[in-house]
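Q: Convert this sequence to structure tokens.
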Amino acid sequence: MIPYRPQGVYVPLITPFAADGSVALDAIEVLIHRYADAGVSGIVALGTTGEPAMLTSDERQRVIDVAARVALERHLEFIVGAGTIGTAATIETINAVAMTPGLSAVLVVSPYYVRPSQAGILAHFTAISDQTDVPVIVYNIPARTGRAMTAETLLAVSALPRVVGLKQAVGALDDDTLRVLAEGPSSFAVMSGDDAVILPMVLQGGTGAIAASAHVCTERFVAMVECGLSGKLDDAVAHADALLPVVTAGFAEPNPAVFKGALAAQGLIPSPDVRLPLVNASGDAIDALLAAIDAAG
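A:
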């Protein structure tokens, strides 16, 4: 049994770009130190928010190298996004990052675009569990993959030896999610991937969140989850109420454009730029997020 069980708030790092379009590695360091100071449990490099599909293989490796080094310095758990369309390619990607210093787990999205059956999805994760030695957090996000993992599939996957957790992002705290929370192994961590329902999921037995919104108001996201886990319900609800407008504003346009715009406006990254086919956030969207951040305190 793998002893690792993720808990708390994890920030799925953006990939900041310099004015010339190159990856701003120094800004990655600044962000990780900031989030460590705010009390996060860990960081995720090359998740969806990090625009990995728009990076070259060399850029992806440099992001991993820098993020791993700083995470190790700050005693943060370090997760790398490693999912691709095909099973063989996913296993190859996982094995390529397996020796990264301080690696805690890989985040593996359910196969996208090809839309496999539930049996195919289970076979995919079974092969990954059989052919890799790295703890795996499954990422179920049907809005991006085109195929939702059912409760039956998720529970079967939760029993695999290498699988330690789930990032569940189905747009709601639905019946399937509640079944997994109720029936999954006690060692299996269920984490929110929908920032608007982090607290309800924690109160139903979730262990925390991998939350893009925690790029901003980080201390308050950490406090919300800590209060939820410790049963301080009034405080947890107050945090959740204050943070909901931040979540809504941050996702008003395709992620991570609005969060990048806010971070650039705060002087934390050198530019608000994303890479095509994403386009930069509108000024109105950035202003709305900055106003929500100010209101949240």
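The chain has twelve helices and eight strands.
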